[in-house]
Amino acid sequence: MHTAVFLVLGGANLATAQIITQDDYIPVNADQARIGQLLFYDKILSGNKNISCGTCHHHDHAGGDGLSLGIGEGGVGVGPDRTAGTGPDAIRKRIPRNAPSLWNLGHNSIDALFHDGRLTQSDTYGNGFDSPAEEWLPQGLNNLVAAQALFPLIAQFEMAGNPRENEIAGATHDRIDVAWPIIAKRVRTIPAYGDMFVQAFGHIDEPRDVTIVEIGNALGAFIISEWQSYDSPYDQWITGSPLPEDAERGRQLFLNIRCASCHAGPLFTDQQFHALGLPAFGPGRTRQWDQISRDVGRMAETNLLEDAYKFRTPSLRNVYLTAPYGHNGAYPTLAAMIKHHATPAESAAAWTPDMAQLPDVPWLAAIDFAIREDAAEMARQSAVNDLRPITLGDNDVNDLVAFLKSLTGETALTRPSGRPDAVPSGLPVD
Question: How confident is the model at residue 288 (pLDDT cuts 50, 70, 90)?
Fold first, then answer.
């Protein structure tokens, strides 16, 4: 990684900007990435064959879904227009957290994934990762991105489906790893996939040798190669091209009010965990003993009280394209999210449910905002906040938005592979 040193205009301090290049990413095999592209949009990976990875991380929505809380298995459509399904296919629960961005996940600096950081590289379980699968995560996954790709496949409300609906959902409830061989068999017995795996993976001699490990590695190769972005106006600024005047004012303000203390480095994230006091709603990512619809964030993974309600700092690259914002998508615009950072208590108090991007699901209405009626839980969440209030005028907010917009890659919406028109399973592509 290259660095450029520049003087922060209007101040006496020096700052260092880091130039991202192709060498800063995990290298991938192009043939494996091609398989991953097809699998990413192939509903064959889901229990009821009705949702793909791309449904909630769609090219048309900059790798997201445009919703605060997603509609997973059983839903119909893509993005903000996605509906909750009907009859026996109707969803039973919203996805508890906002669909995370895929941008630059293959950058060498990434050391944890998911909003709560529950996936890291580690020798704890002898397979290279500390993950929800613990010792049952198979050996041979190439990197964090490949490992994370396996977990939505076995999540009930994301892709697996409900118990007794299909063999994958049933197996998932037996043990976390039992469904993966079933998914792998589905894929490798499709002739086109079987042939592609033999060609792309040197150790695969016959289709029957394909396991969930190769599927994860193919998905990881695609995600790593497809969602790279480092050609923004900000990147050009590092090498000497000026930013627009409002973006330059925003950049200086971004540094001066210490936004960069958390949104640091080439990806604008310290990869640490912070409590922001975001308005609570939704079903929560509850633990086994939670009797209320809450999400304690990082604490669910560490069991440390000091980690309560903390979530991983997101990267700000292409953030202008990935609304809504926050681990639960609480704020619909960057301006609203910036104002929350400036005055968290006041912004949270002024928040209204209509700010959440939630497609109407009448049978879940009683759950969606129930947590907000729990005074004790709201007090606990309000008591933990790492943000320091600051004064920002409307012009300051506008300048900060302009700077964040300058982090948008010029080719962000024209990806190298894109969405395939068809997939080998023959299932429809969202």
Answer: confident
